[in-house]
Amino acid sequence: MSRILNHRMRSSLRRPSSWSCVDKRAVAFSVWTGRSVLLHKPLDSYQIPRRRYGMLIARAVRGVLKIRYLLLGGAVGGGMTLNKKYVEWKDGLPEMGWLNDLLPDNEQWDKFTTTLLDAKEKIGDQFQIGVPLTLSIHSDPRLREAGAVRAAELREWLAQRYEDAVAAAAVKNATSSIEPAPKIVNNLQSRPAPMSAKSNADETAAYERRVHALQEEVLSLQARYQRELQRLEQENRELRQQNMLLRQGRQPSTKKMKRSLIDMYSSVLDELADWDSGEAGRLPRVVVVGDQSAGKTSVLEMLAQARIFPRGAGEMCTRAPVKVTLSEGPYHVAQFNDSSREFDLNKEADLADLRKEVELRMRNSVRGGRTVSNQQIAMSVKGPGIPRMVLVDLPGVISTQTVDMASDTREAIKEMTKQYMDNPNAIILCIQDGSVDAERSNVTDLVSSCDPSGKRTIFVLTKVDLAEENLANPNRIRRILEGKLFPMKALGYYAVVTGRSRKDDSIQSIREYEERFFRSSKLFKDGMVAAGQVTTRNLALGVAECFWRMVRDSVEQQADAFKAMRFNLESEWKNTFPRQRELDRDELFERARAELLDKSAELSGVPAAAWEARLQKALWAAAAQRIFAGIYLPAAANASEDVDKFNTSVDIKLREWAENELATLSIQAGRQALREEFSELMSKSSDSDAIYEPVKKAAVDEALSRHQWEERAQDVLRVLQVNALQDRCVASRGEWDSAVSLMEDALKERLKSTEEDLKSLAGPGFRERWLYWQSSSEEQNRRSEVKSELERLGSSRPNLSYDEVVAVRDNLRRRGVDTDNEYIRETWKPIYLKQFLQRALSRARDCRKSFYLYTQQNGTGKECCEVVMFWRVQSALRTTANALRQQIGNREAGRLDRELREVLDEMSSDADMKKKLLSGRRVELAEELKRVRHVQEKLEEFIEALNKEK
């Protein structure tokens, strides 16, 4: 397609060699200015076609230039993020100010065009061999038609390129990462007027080549922008995919960063920090031991090349084991394993913060009156030139404990030191203070007992500068470094200087002082000690070499031990828990959590009828005792067949109950119903694992205990209940029958309870005594006699008169039963209540047929007033149940769900709680199996990386 377009452009721009200089220059100026130069003079018949052809070429070239600017402008405007690049792009656009220097002003232009026209008229007759192009086009209609067709094709091509540029500029995904477009060099330079036909042909060919080059440049620029936009679209799709994963709570896949060997090894040691598995987990590490204030911490700081530990004047500083992973890196930084903060060791402020953090962690580990702790503090130090190894700094061994220490401090330090040194693969870095007498050392005997052959011990003599000053016999230092003074053996002996008793000295200044001392010391200058045995630099190289040799010799053996342990655990799991997956505590807890939250979400799906039935049942269970003992029975006793008095008493007592107690009682009943419904939902899960039950029960109980009903709900309920109790008009037969049923059920339940009380007072009856061989006590026989006498009395009043009591007592005395008046009255209460309930139950049965009579009296009748009272109570409880159901659905279920989530979140972060709730061999075996697998995988990864480094 591009070849066809180029051919058409060349054919449309081809000119005959017989053009005059005036015609060529006119066309050239038309290209520069975009308009004809002959507008200042009248156009004759042969000038009009020439002007049209020149303007056609000018429009073509100007369109090409316009496409270039449209592409650049469209790319800039395609995205809002390219605003910052606009100034740079504008500066990169071609400078068109040179046209002002080349083009003449108006007066010169008029003079020049007049001269050209006059010259053309004078010499026009001399060129009869070839007709000018414009005249030929004007005179020959075929040429005119061909030029019109070519002009139409050229306009179509330019329109297509313009649409492509606009489409490319409309892409919205362009960002600021687009490269700045290179400057487009203007290829349209001024051309000298041709002097001959050959020069005219060469000029035309050169002009066509420049137009073709400009076209190719525009197309290449468009292709470059298209490739850049495709790249940005791909990046945008990846970003959208990552955003979608984050919204779904999933982490996008990240590239696994390559870790150093020492970091991989240190992570394995962290996994085994509290491992208790015999020979397994005995991986090499450098254990730094020594007497208190012997310089252990100073040696470690010299190896780490930074003052990273707190210092104390004459008191114990190291109170817990500190594991330090040293590795080489581009920046000198330190970081705790459980923290993301990096401390820049080149900044004094960060160093001070690091020392404070170490001190704080140590103090937190020795709470409860202890002086030292077994809790390990893990940190890593990276920097240029730092040797790769793992060291454990232990508290210094003491010979005497002060009064401010715990009573077991000395033994605790020795046990901790022996525990770390008993590892057969541990490298013991024994630090001895050279400024004190060798006989005062406590640590050398301890080291000798753990490593009698000295195959993994390195002896370090510190403070050699002070020793040289204080010792009268320098030969003593030589004997120490030759291993002839102490009864212990070692792989190597080193002498170092780790400071000048100045807290503010930097590591670099201490190292320079150390090197100066050993260069100037008479002891070492005389060759009494080898040069490789001095300075912390040589010590670091020796310890690192020994450490990695020990690692290479033992790591595969430890990996095999873990592989065997894993096989044994997997076999036990398959035999004990077949067809079950190994789930640790975290996985089991998450499953229990998911089931709880699913059941909690089902609360909103409980039908309204089920909620109201449960709530009414809970409300009646909570209010029944108060209704009988506080309202119904007192009102009936005081009324003594006076209906008006009964209704008045009931109104007063119901209002007091509604205003003072009913709302609170309703909230308690609502909470109880919510608890029961939630507990039933939890128990409906038939496929739930029994191991989850302790977690589920503990979480539900804690969430329900925290759940408090909304306070303003009581005020709303109180208003609704007072209004419901004021209504006395039963609207329908169904409500009347429901109230009668409620009254009958309540009376029957109360009557049954009263009869059981009387039975317990009077003892078993004739049937129980003969059929079930039950007997009565002396007190029950006495109460039975009083009961029989009171029943024969036939009183219908709730309280016996004095004469009635005296009569009953006299009758009982004649029968040989001696009682007092209070005993008789106490026995009469359940008897009267039983009689009253029997009569009330009979009235309730009669009132079931009295609804028609009630409606005829418009609710003003005095019959069946007890049924109306129970209907009022039932209506209030029904209204309360409806309000509670709405409250549960709208607010309380959601609040309970949030409280349950909070409880689960707290439990998930409490390892002790999960260990207590999820226990048993199944969980312990899964936990151990998971941990062994994890350690084995890390060991295999480390071994693979170690072999690659070899």
From TrEMBL:
Residues 204-249 form a coiled coil. Pfam families: Dynamin_N (PF00350), OPA1_C (PF19434). It is found in: Mitochondrion inner membrane; Mitochondrion intermembrane space. Its EC number is 3.6.5.5. It catalyses: GTP + H2O = GDP + phosphate + H(+). It comes from the Eukaryota. The keyword tRNA-binding does not apply. Keywords: Apoptosis, Coiled coil, Disulfide bond, GTP-binding, Hydrolase, Lipid-binding, Membrane, Mitochondrion, Mitochondrion inner membrane, Nucleotide-binding, Transit peptide, Transmembrane, Transmembrane helix. Residues 280-556 form the Dynamin-type G domain. InterPro entries: Dynamin (IPR022812), Dynamin_GTPase (IPR001401), Dynamin_N (IPR045063), G_DYNAMIN_dom (IPR030381), OPA1_C (IPR045817), P-loop_NTPase (IPR027417). The keyword Hydrolase applies. This is Dynamin-like GTPase OPA1, mitochondrial. It comes from Pieris macdunnoughi.
